[in-house]
Amino acid sequence: MRRLHPRTRATLAAAVALGVGLSAGPLAGPALAGTTAGTPAGTVVAADAYGPDAAALRAAIAGLPDRDATAALLRVGGHGTWHGTAGVRDIRGGGPALHNARFRAGSVTKVVTAALVLKLAAEGRVDLDGTVQTYLPGLLTDDFEPITVRQLLDFTSGLQPGDSYGGTVEEGLPHRFLTLTPEEVVASAVAKGPGSRPGERQHYSNIHYTVLGMLVEKVTGDTYAHQAYVRIFKPLGLRHTSFPAGADPRIHGPHNRGYEEIDGRLVDVTEWNMSDRWAAGDLISTTADLERFMVALFRGQVVPDPYLEEMFTLPDVPGARLAAGLERFELNGRVIWGKTGSRPGYHTVVAATRDLSRTLVYSVNATDAKGAGLALAQRFAFPAFNR
To answer: In the chain, what are the helix, strand and coil shares in percent, each to the nearest 5?
Structure first.
């Protein structure tokens, strides 16, 4: 574990004094199955003996803020429901973390993009075996072999990552209000040439889904963001889910501020232009909206069969762990499908068993959102699947 600078620890200690701990306010929105409207955050009403491990979940968020995070929002569902909120909204002003906060969901965006492309495939507007060269003529040079839509979805296209303003928060911080367009990102990737032959190996990178966003716009003649709204967000009633307007660096609406530890101090990284992440990672949402989306998706209410199975089918390449938008995990003898997402100051996970007997959505205002992903999952995600 990283040790914070004494000044940072003092700041967090002050935040605790200003009001940290489990929030006791009523839950927003309609009650889910197995819960009672107005149930306080941090409590559980189990539907049966296989309900959530409430003690482990409480322990996960106890003591926030600490050196790992300033706030955490957890929603566990399936057989029984548990909601937890802990930490502070702002380490300078204090006040308890908001249970209905909006946050940057990072690469969870890819689940939305995959669902959108598969919906278009179900409508006959996209052929999963069709090629990038057909849908986006001139995008790739003659150095590239035909790349299919399916290979973009399952990260086997062979495209190399495009330019960014740095691979770490420290590198990106001075450039956080600059704009790097998706077109510029793709052009820089194409200039590098193929990283491998299409379908040869799986390599996780934003570039596959940036190209998919372009494909959506070309096929529909509309913006990617508007297509996501009319085909997914609006039908499902996801009223607090959106994309930034262009280079807008703000999170509009209620939110907990995000911080990153840089050189021994906490730096506020809430405002950040995410336009270069676009269809691969600039979604803003809430835990309630993401839970509703995930449940509807797994039930086939977003993408119909047989196209939904693309999201639960790994490509036949060595070491594959990613399908179309979702990653396969095994924990406590169970197969779990989900996606992580990290942006400066915000770490997000959506995960569920295929039969929805257990679901999890969390957003953690982590002080090392990208670098501490496994440790954060072990603390905040694993307890949801204890039983």
So the answer is: 30, 20, 50
Write out the chain's pLDDT in tens, 387 residues: 344 444 344 444 434 333 333 222 222 222 222 222 233 345 444 445 678 999 999 999 999 999 999 999 999 999 999 999 999 999 998 899 999 999 999 999 999 999 999 999 999 999 999 999 999 999 999 999 999 999 999 999 999 999 999 889 999 999 999 999 999 999 999 999 999 999 999 999 999 999 999 999 999 999 999 999 999 999 999 999 999 999 999 999 999 999 999 999 999 999 999 999 999 999 999 999 999 999 999 999 999 999 999 999 999 999 999 999 999 999 989 999 999 999 999 999 999 999 999 999 999 999 999 999 999 999 999 999 998
Residues 6+ apart with CB under 8 A from 321: 202, 314, 327, 328
Residue 83 token pair: 């909601």
Is 107 among the catalytic positions?
A: yes
Rounded CA-CA distance 112/94 in Å is: 33
Catalytic residue among 107, 157, 242, 285: 107
DSSP state of 225: H
Which residue intervals of 65-181 are DSSP H helices? 109-122, 132-135, 149-153, 169-172
DSSP state of 384: G
The phi and psi torsions of 16 (rounded to 5 degrees) equal -60, -45
Bridge-based pairing of strands 265-268 and 259-262 is: antiparallel
